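re the bet — no i am not wrong, look at it urself. input seq straight from the record:
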Amino acid sequence: MPLGSFVARTAAGLFDLTLWILSTFALLKAGCSWFSPLIAWIGLVEIGYHLRGSLGKVLFGLSIVVSGRAQFYLRETIGKLASVATFGIGFLVVMGNERMAFHDYIAKTRVVQLRLQPANIRVLAAFGLFLGVGLAAYVGTHFAISGRAVQPATTEPNISSIVQQTPGVCTLNIYDRQGNPTGQGSCFILGRDGLATTNFHVLEEAYRAEATMGDGRLFHVLRIQGFDQEQDLIVFQLGREIGALVEWPKDLFALTLGASTTVSIGDRIATIGSPEGIPNTVSDGIISAIRKDEVPPIMQITAPISSGSSGSPVFDLHGRVIGIVSSQVRDGQNLNFAIPVEKLAGLLDRRDNLTLADFRNQLQPPRTNPLTSDPFELAFERGGKLYEAGRYREALDQFLKVQALRPDEAAAYYNAARCYEHLNLEDDAAVEYYVFLSLAPSNDPDRQAVVDWMTNRNYDLPATP
């Protein structure tokens, strides 16, 4: 083989290799799959050595399409378009002369005698265009990828993650035998088919219960699927009775269950519920204590809790449910607890399929807890649960019982006054608050609010000791 021909073919091969390396680099920088440069290389070889006409262009065009297929994402569009343009413009211009492939041109021309004839100019212009577009592809892709890199890899958890969960929380309205409303609570959706949960005490004496979704849709509590009286949890099925037929939900927004073990004292949490009947109310706070004597540990939270909040989900800042609100009164103090979500595990697979009537018939008197066997403690705890369920008259009876058992317990008078307020018996509430102020220490956190309430309504205050 003549030396000139050898040099020409070697130069053509090096040119092909250079094209492939540059295009491979551009494709990979643009985030394309590993097979894209391989297909492009096969197309280039076929065109360069065997095909000279339109068929070659079509095959090479297909390799371009395959190289860029489904590869375009919002932040990399410019870089990837430039990468494809490297093939589409550069190579198709090189192959514009259908009479002669570039390899043949090099082979038939002495390299040392190349002159700037029109054919030479076309080839050199195409090569320069290819290099220019390739450089643009690299620069465009570099900035596209750099722009993506400055975005955080993960979203910083914040309260907005919880707000997005509001479609999965409902307001529960409870009715007695005569159809009169007796209380409210909150519940949340566990499954798109309408499986939901709340506190046991919310549905404990319900003859009828309705769940109102955030979007206004109304469902009935049709079946009790499982309950745990001691843990104060119940799982039930929502549906809608239409005459003799039952319509079961199919597309409800189900919340994601997390784990209470992923949070610690001081971590921020939030709840969504219906305090005082106001739906989709978001309250935040922290975990103030963890009772490690329980397994899993029960969390004490600072998120504001009021009547109607029982059964609300407690979220971490990723929007995962880690607990269920269960406000309780213990040792004469109002404490807000979150039952760990893990305690739902034993109820999720149960399908007792009980009507509310069957459920009430199955209920047994609550077991006596050795730690709270004192009638004072039992009455206080029972009063707290009734209050949270919105059953203020029954709760009042329990707090009056506490007063009889321990007349010097300031919290009993405070809680009785709150019940009277909800019953619109303001004068009776003032009497209870008066006794509360007489007994409560000066540093009691509720004292100033009671003083303001009494003063604003022109009620007498006890003499300051």
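see?? The chain is about 40% helix and 20% strand. told u. also The mean pLDDT is 74. so pay up
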